[in-house]
Design brief:
Elements (H helix, E strand, L loop, with lengths): L2 H6 L9 E4 L2 E4 L4 E5 L2 E2 L6 H36 L19 E5 L5 H4 L5 E6 L2 H10 L4 E4 L12 E7 L9 H11 E12 L4 H12 L23 H9 L5 E7 L3 H9 L9 H15 L11 E7 L1
Parallel strand pairs: 5-6, 5-8, 6-7, 8-9
Antiparallel strand pairs: 1-2, 2-3, 3-4, 9-11, 10-11
Helix pairs in contact: 2-8, 2-9
The structure holds S-adenosylmethionine (SAM) and zinc ion (ZN).
């Protein structure tokens, strides 16, 4: 294992440092962790998440891959132009790289967002082992670790930046612990960037909830993930503010963000829509205008994401 990577890891059970023995990481108190290829496995696995990760991947191969990939890419190109770093595709390149910094991409999923952040030591962590092992084979410049956001396998005060794209709303009653853990592993002055969906956005909860309830997946095989996942619990404005107000972060800014997702989802569900003349310019227009509108209460209740920048 890479020495720089190993030096920032700590035992998630007792926080003591780790050494490598016979292909395992072992802490001073004898807690042992497997290493799969290059990926340390620092927690017990969650069968639901592994199943979800596989279902996501399969449906991309089957449906989205063939029918809606063109529409998806068209949307992503626009989002990148607009500076939406939270799109897990290419847009994380927008985060300006620094030479010697330490970055943690928490709940990094397939690792694409991790791979697009440049410079220094950039670590991706997810609870899904399948995704971490594959990401580590695919993105050789990064480090990946299987870990639980509620009990981070890192030493304190290590990271300059932690990003958490659509993670906290999956953690339910454990999210407060996870936020305290993020605070712990950040350096003084380090930054957390996170986004989570807004419950009161019309497609956020209601749309996706109905999609699931009515079993509409069958009719839209291009994007079955549009249905709300069993582990998701989205935030209202008051809940998201409360989440940060009751955390150790004293400096944070919550920004209502994005309204155009309805167009994105519409074109993924019905790809020919994205081929209509002028679709890209229309998307840019709606996004720019929407970004201003959702900053004015009460229209903030309509935004798709709550975006937060918090400083330790
Ligand atoms: C909606 S996905 C977002 C993935 C990625 N950040 C992106 O934007 O594509 C949520 C991710 O959080 C991961 N996750 C859920 N609970 C977790 C936990 N307790 N610790 C670490 N990761 C977790 C899931 O495996 C999943 O990959
Ligand atoms: Zn230990």
């Amino acid at each position: 294992m890479n020495a720089r990577f190993k030096s920032i890891l700590a035992c998630p059970k007792c926080r003591s440092s780790l050494s490598e023995r016979r292909g395992k990481l072992v802490c001073g108190r004898g807690h042992k962790f497997e290493i799969d290829g290059e990926v340390p496995v620092m927690t017990k696995l969650d069968p639901y998440l592994e199943k979800e990760a596989k279902a996501w991947e399969d449906s991309w191969k089957r449906g989205v891959g063939k029918r809606a990939l063109g529409a998806y890419k068209k949307n992503m190109k626009v989002f990148e132009r607009l500076g939406y770093w939270e799109e897990s595709g290419r847009a994380t390149r927008i985060i300006k790289s620094k030479k010697n910094w330490y970055v943690l991409d928490l709940g990094c999923g397939n690792g694409l967002s991790t791979a697009n952040i440049k410079g220094g030591v950039v670590v991706g962590m997810d609870l899904s082992k399948k995704q971490m092992v594959r990401a580590s084979k695919r993105y050789k410049n990064n480090f990946f670790v299987v870990g639980d956001a509620t009990c981070l396998p890192f030493r304190s005060g290590i990271f300059d930046l932690v990003i958490a794209i659509n993670l906290f709303h999956h953690l339910r009653d454990k999210k407060e612990v996870a936020l305290r853990e993020v605070y712990r592993v950040l350096k003084k002055g380090g930054v957390l960037l996170a986004v989570d969906p807004n419950l009161t956005n019309p497609i956020g909860f209601t749309g996706r909830g109905f999609f699931k309830l009515l079993g509409l997946k069958r009719f839209f095989p291009t994007f079955p993930q549009f249905a709300l996942g069993d582990d998701e619990k989205q935030f209202t404005k008051a809940q998201y503010y409360g989440f940060f107000e009751n955390s150790p972060f004293k400096k944070f800014k919550i920004i209502p963000h994005r309204i155009e997702r309805i167009l994105f989802f519409a074109t993924i569900l019905l790809p020919p829509l994205s081929k209509l003349p002028g679709y890209e310019s229309f998307l840019v227009f709606v996004s720019r205008a929407g970004e201003q509108i959702v900053k004015i209460p009460p229209f903030d209740y309509l935004c798709y994401f709550w975006k937060v920048e918090a400083v330790k």
